[in-house]
């Protein structure tokens, strides 16, 4: 099936089970077992089925299957938020004494989680340049458990050299984890380019209406083989799990990465997705493809307007030919569509604040991927805790304004920006 068909039908057969056209919400905490043997079989993985909604839920299961198919993966697991998706993906392979290589162009929450919070658990990070991965290989050592990067980064709107990162990771037997939130599963599929694990904040474009927080982790087919080949680095998957009656993950004929998160991290840490949020995401994922096309087309129209406006010093949008990321957008993204984020520079800090305050249609919001257009001044809000040099490294100037282009008529957005800039 093609992606727009998967988005509507994937993971659900209305001729079986519920028989409803719309997937119902299984708003339940627990499940009744047929008898003692049924319960024992479920715990022993001899039979698959729901035990408790922290671990699995039938509504969430449909979303997981649908999302895995959309990303071209073998399996997916929903979790409470994008942040918990990143935490689980990394904690599934790394522990005290290990390190993770992280891109220099990342979401602020990912930076604080990976750099500061994981450090308290003994996991350290080293930063590499994602634009060309020129300093990636030299930083890999025997304790490196993952390479983490964003395909299209938020807020820098930079595109990683996915091919080069994957090539280096494969040569060294290190797992790659790609945050594909901003590009979305509709425009880009990291697994098709050889990435091992994909994470998303489904709170953004997947939801598309700013109505639910969620996260998801998708794994490629064949990770059990990868873990066996690199058994020293990924010994958790080849040695018995004493916390799960000696289970050896690579011996289980189920996608290993998500299985271990479910049986281990979701069981113990418990940041699971609510069934109601899974249901909301099943509604919105149906329109992901057409929404991403519209977000991208409108963003390109607005970016071209900004580029031609004398009050604007520069515009960063990967769909513009002037962008250093233009070629990567053409190479990686569906029809070269570059999603809905734009950033631009005005003359000074005061002008930036005036533009924010004068915009009427744009809401001043620190979110992205909503159907409503959003505007933010990172230096005085999302990135106000950073020092001047950290801001510079993150590519944020005091004069940077970021837009998340929604689904309004782009002409109305242009008129609003025109008056705000005048
Ligand atoms: C928002 C975001 C996250 C965090 O997701 P939440 O659902 O807010 O926890 C992670 N990565 C990227 C790229 C994001 O934009």
Ordered list of secondary-structure elements with their pairings:
Layout (H helix, E strand, L loop, with lengths): L2 H7 L26 H8 L14 H14 L3 E5 L2 H10 L7 E5 L4 H13 L3 E5 L15 E7 L11 H11 L2 E5 L4 H4 L9 E5 L13 E5 L3 H7 L5 H4 L17 H13 L6 H11 L2 H21 L5 E3 L9 H7 L8 E5 L3 H10 L4 E2 L9 E3 L11 H6 L6 E5 L5 H12 L1
Parallel strand pairs: 2-3, 2-4, 4-5, 5-6, 10-11
Antiparallel strand pairs: 1-7, 6-7, 8-9, 9-12, 11-12
The chain binds pyridoxal-5'-phosphate.
Strand content: 5-15%
- Determine the structural class based on helices, strands and strand pairing: alpha/beta
Task: Write out the CATH superfamily name of the largest domain.
Answer: Type I PLP-dependent aspartate aminotransferase-like (Major domain)
Helix content: 25-40%
Can you summarize the main beta sheet? 7 strands, mixed
Protein name: O-acetylhomoserine aminocarboxypropyltransferase/cysteine synthase
Cofactor: pyridoxal 5'-phosphate
GO molecular function: cysteine synthase activity; O-acetylhomoserine aminocarboxypropyltransferase activity; pyridoxal phosphate binding
Keywords: Pyridoxal phosphate, Transferase
């Amino acid at each position: 099936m093609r992606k727009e068909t998967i988005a509507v039908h994937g993971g659900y057969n209305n001729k079986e089970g519920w028989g409803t056209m719309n997937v119902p919400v299984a708003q339940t905490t627990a499940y009744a077992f047929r008898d003692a043997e049924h319960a024992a079989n479920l715990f022993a993985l001899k039979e698959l089925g729901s035990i408790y909604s922290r671990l699995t839920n039938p509504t969430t299961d449909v979303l997981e299957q649908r999302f895995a198919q959309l990303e071209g993966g073998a399996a997916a697991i929903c979790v409470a938020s994008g942040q918990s998706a990143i935490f689980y993906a990394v904690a599934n392979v790394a522990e005290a004494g290990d390190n993770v290589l992280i891109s220099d162009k990342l979401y602020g929450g990912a930076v604080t989680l990976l750099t500061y919070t994981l450090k308290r658990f003994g996991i350290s990070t080293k930063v590499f340049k994602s634009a060309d991965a020129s300093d990636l290989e030299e930083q890999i050592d025997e304790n490196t458990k993952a390479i983490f990067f964003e395909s299209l980064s938020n807020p820098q709107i930079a595109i990683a050299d996915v091919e080069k990162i994957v090539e280096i990771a494969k040569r060294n037997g290190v797992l790659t984890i790609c945050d594909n939130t901003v590009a979305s599963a509709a425009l880009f599929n990291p697994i098709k380019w050889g990435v091992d694990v994909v994470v998303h904040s489904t709170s953004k474009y997947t939801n598309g209406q700013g109505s639910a927080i969620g996260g998801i982790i998708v794994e490629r087919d064949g990770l059990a083989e990868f873990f066996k080949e690199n058994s020293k680095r990924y010994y958790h998957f080849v040695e018995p799990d004493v916390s799960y009656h000696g289970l050896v993950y690579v011996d289980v004929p189920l996608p290993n990465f998500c299985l271990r998160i479910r049986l281990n991290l979701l069981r113990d840490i418990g940041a699971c997705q609510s069934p109601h949020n899974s249901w909301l995401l099943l509604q919105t994922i149906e329109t992901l493809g057409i929404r991403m096309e519209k977000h991208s087309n409108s963003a390109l129209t607005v970016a071209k307007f900004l580029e031609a406006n004398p009050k604007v010093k520069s515009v960063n949008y990967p769909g513009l030919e002037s962008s250093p990321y233009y070629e990567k957008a053409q190479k990686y993204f569906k029809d070269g569509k570059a999603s809905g984020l734009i950033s631009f520079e005005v003359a000074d800090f005061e002008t930036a604040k005036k533009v924010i305050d004068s915009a009427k249609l744009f809401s001043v919001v620190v979110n992205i991927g909503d159907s409503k257009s959003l505007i933010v001044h990172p230096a005085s809000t999302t990135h106000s805790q950073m020092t001047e040099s950290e801001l510079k490294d993150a590519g944020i100037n005091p004069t940077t304004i970021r837009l998340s282009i929604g689904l309004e008529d782009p002409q109305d957005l242009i008129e609003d920006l025109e008056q705000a800039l005048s």
